[in-house]
């Protein structure tokens, strides 16, 4: 039976993944955290050595922090084990590390593991492709008060989908963090706004606004179970793939 190892095991997502795996009868080999103390479940200790966890697991899931990504990828490459990266707040350097690791092992990276968000991304891509750049794209997200990165990984995933639909590079067209005298909106820009508060698991809205009409496409996560289920499904799928970089589309059949 495939066993899963969890980087960031003591966090909100780490614990949700362990619970979903346990309920589905999927083995959890163990987990790591910054400090490496406590238990993930009765008899499953949380350690601090990614290399040991990678050796002991069949497939790894990383929901931790960007600063730990390099060590997690190194551990998986050294052990020859696939890894699903759900951590957000990744920058260009992190994506380069993922591309490099994906030459040796299967790596699935995604800002959101849920079916609903990945279907939403497909709809956004289609809408952006059909509407043209006189329809302004704005992406609004809200998350719980503990979230440390913005825009969310999901907002960026949706922005990438809109950019793909338009045939442009998101990096050249994104407008983030508007404040003060910003000047008028650039034609063709993809805008982002982030709200933080309370216990919101994850709300995303993509607004396509034209002269006189607006289309709003959105998704609301009611809890973290949807992310945990998607992560476990993605990890099990990844175990059967050759080295390469993947996202959730193939896992979910989208
Ligand atoms: N792709 C997706 O579908 C989703 C992605 N996420 C993303 O997953 C990440 C985690 O989210 P969440 O669980 O809510 O956050 P938490 O802060 O609850 O958990 C992160 C965990 O990572 C641990 N950690 C910190 N440094 C290391 C390290 N060097 N090695 C191993 N573990 C470490 C933290 O430990 P400590 O507390 O001691 O610092 C903490 O337990 C975020 O980036 C979030 O945006 C979240 C939900 C869905
Ligand atoms: O930090 C979170 O909680 C979430 N992070 C992911 C993101 O940045 O999009 C996914 C989900 O929205 C919850």
UniProtKB/TrEMBL annotation:
Span of domain Dihydrodipicolinate reductase N-terminal: 3-112
Domain Dihydrodipicolinate reductase C-terminal residues, every copy: 116-252
Active-site residues annotated for this sequence: 143, 147
UniProt-annotated binding residues for NADP(+): 34
UniProt KW keywords: Amino-acid biosynthesis, Cytoplasm, Diaminopimelate biosynthesis, Lysine biosynthesis, NAD, NADP, Oxidoreductase
Gene Ontology biological-process annotations: diaminopimelate biosynthetic process; lysine biosynthetic process via diaminopimelate
GO molecular function annotation: 4-hydroxy-tetrahydrodipicolinate reductase; NAD binding; NADP binding; oxidoreductase activity, acting on CH or CH2 groups, NAD or NADP as acceptor
The enzyme's E.C. designation: 1.17.1.8
Residues reported to bind (S)-2,3,4,5-tetrahydrodipicolinate: 144, 153-154
Pathway(s) the chain acts in: Amino-acid biosynthesis; L-lysine biosynthesis via DAP pathway; (S)-tetrahydrodipicolinate from L-aspartate: step 4/4
Positions contributing to NAD(+) binding: 8-13, 33, 86-88, 110-113
PROSITE patterns for this protein: DAPB
CC per GO annotation: cytosol
Short name of one Pfam family: DapB_C
Subunit (UniProt): Homotetramer.
Family classification: Belongs to the DapB family.
PANTHER family: 4-HYDROXY-TETRAHYDRODIPICOLINATE REDUCTASE 1, CHLOROPLASTIC-RELATED (PTHR20836:SF0), DIHYDRODIPICOLINATE REDUCTASE (PTHR20836)
Protein name: 4-hydroxy-tetrahydrodipicolinate reductase
Organism (species): Sphingobium cloacae
């Amino acid at each position: 039976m495939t066993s899963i190892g969890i980087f960031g095991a003591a966090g909100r997502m780490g614990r949700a993944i362990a619970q979903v795996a346990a309920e589905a009868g999927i083995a959890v080999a163990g987990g790591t955290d910054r400090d490496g103390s406590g238990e993930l479940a009765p008899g499953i200790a949380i350690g601090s050595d990614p290399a040991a966890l990678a050796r002991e697991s069949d497939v790894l899931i990383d929901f931790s922090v960007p600063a730990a990504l390099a060590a997690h990828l190194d551990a998986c490459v050294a052990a020859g084990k696939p890894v699903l990266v759900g951590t957000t707040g990744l920058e260009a350097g992190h994506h380069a590390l993922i591309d490099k690791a994906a030459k040796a092992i299967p790596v699935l990276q995604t800002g959101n593991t849920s079916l609903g968000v990945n279907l939403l991304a497909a709809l956004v891509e289609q809408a952006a492709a059909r509407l043209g750049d006189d329809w302004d794209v704005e992406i609004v997200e809200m998350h719980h008060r503990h979230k440390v990165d913005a825009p969310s990984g999901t907002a960026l995933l949706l922005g990438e989908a809109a950019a793909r639909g338009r045939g442009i590079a998101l990096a050249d067209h994104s407008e983030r963090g508007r404040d003060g005298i910003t000047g008028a909106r650039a034609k063709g820009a993809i805008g982002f706004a982030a709200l933080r508060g309370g216990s919101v698991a994850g709300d995303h809205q993509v607004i396509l606004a034209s002269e006189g009409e607006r289309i709003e496409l959105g998704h609301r996560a009611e809890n973290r179970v949807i992310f945990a289920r998607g992560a476990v499904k993605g990890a099990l799928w990844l175990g059967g793939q050759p080295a390469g970089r993947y996202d959730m589309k193939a896992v979910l059949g989208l």
